[in-house]
Specification:
The protein is α+β, with helices and mostly antiparallel strands. It has a single domain (12-154), classed as NADH Oxidase, CATH 3.40.109. Helices cover 38% and strands 17% of the residues. The protein has helices spanning 3-10, 24-35, 54-68, 95-112, 123-126, 130-138, and strands spanning 46-51, 82-89, 116-120, 145-154. Helix 2 (24-35) runs antiparallel to helix 4 (95-112). The model has no long low-confidence stretch (mean pLDDT 98).
Amino acid sequence: MNEIIKAMKERRSIRSFKSDMPSKGDLEQIIEAGLYAANGKGRQAVITVAVTNKEIRDKISDANRRIGGWAEGFDPFYGAPVILIVLAEKDWNNRVYDGSLVMGNMMLAAHSLGLGSIWIHRAKQEFEEKEWQDFLAEIGVQGQWEGIGHCAVGYINGEIPSAAARKDNRVFWVE
């Protein structure tokens, strides 16, 4: 089987991560895979903020937890030490589609490098808050951005989950 298709079939969302930090080289490859995602009109209107600083990672986790309505102490990133935040130009009509393709590429790249990942929502709500808009400005991100998703990345704590059975009647041919 083709290696890319094999990775697509084997990759799973991981909900338990080790605290060990992946290498910067692996993270750079994952991010680069995101940069090569298909995008509308070649506009490349999506950016990635790579968070490996534990203090900032934990603040983002707490904001995400609060927005999600979970009790204090819950980690919506399941212990992943790295959060790759995908944002897109707020005025770009294809922002959600383009950002989603970036997320998909990065999750497949993580899997191909032996790392786990999971897409965590609520980035849109986070980056509507002044605190996180100010954070972007502090790290040099200019302009108006909409949060698309968080790609939580790290070493898998346990086994890769099995795939759920695929539902029937999801493909229709017109020949």
